[in-house]
Fold:
Amino acid sequence: MRELGGTVPRRTEPKPLCLKVGARIRELRTERGMSLQDLAEAGALSKGHLSSIEQGLAAITIETVERIAAALGVSPFCVITFPEDDELDRIADLARKLPKGERRKLRKELEGRTTHEPPA
Structure:
């Protein structure tokens, strides 16, 4: 399996973080109605490699995260956040789903509620 100039190892047992990243990619892909083949083509990956990524069996580079994110139409941050694990990630994921105009309003509201003084 080749990825941007190098061989990337394929695991036989998924690592917990790789499994979470793979599940997140699958969630974002299915949310958009994309097939594995659709995302693989849009991200310039083989379908088999993408399948291994989604199963947590392939180590991936930051460049691959960037390509997958671009193919999904999200920021790389969205690919590596886990809304089910963290309140801030959940807020970010909900904000991501808002229309752009609504995101701006939410940002302004949050900025208004946030003090710019360091916490005591």
The first helix runs from residue 16 to 31. The helical segments are 16-31, 36-42, 47-54, 62-72, 76-79, 87-96, 100-113.
